[in-house]
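Methods — Computational structure assignment.
A single polypeptide chain was analysed. Its primary sequence is given first, followed by the predicted tertiary structure written as structure tokens.
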Amino acid sequence: MTLLHLVRHGRSLWNATGRIQGQIDIELDEIGLQQAQRIADRLGREPLTAIYSSPLLRARVTAEAIAARCKLPVNLDARLMEYDFGVIGGMTWTELAASHPELANRWLEDPWAVPVAGSEERAHFAARVMAAMQDICARYPTEQVAIVAHGGTFAVYLAAMLGLELNRRHPFHFGNTSLSLVEMREGVFHIHSLNSTCHLS
């Protein structure tokens, strides 16, 4: 049995202002740094064997807080990075609607059907995330592993494991430093909890 502790990164400077981040490398703000310490304290009570992280700064700094508490190294894996939004990265929704109104309207209907210059192919995004998760589960078949990454990363993973359509209009929400527990046991996928943020209360 592999038990995965899926941790979304702490609040970033752009989370606080509503800007689309994707793979743009943005730091945690002060609240995000505090959140990272809170989730580190929570996971410090768990018998983790390994910690994996997206190399993007907001995830890596969150993972490093957990690693310091658990006395484990951080393994960086670029396949865990967020979806690349291309040229709309860095915009707020208001800016996007003003500069690309047709794109914004179509995005609300079906995000994956909207061609955005420089963005990542959705099939590639899903494939790299699934490959990373499968490799981690294969490497630690009977252990507990923390994975620090992004809302899109975890959404596409859970959607694939549950047989849902791989698009961004999914039923999942992951708050900053939320903890979701999922288990792989003999090839069967179980969800124990989603988006737990009790450590922030």
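Note: The CA atoms of residues 50 and 145 lie 5 Å apart.
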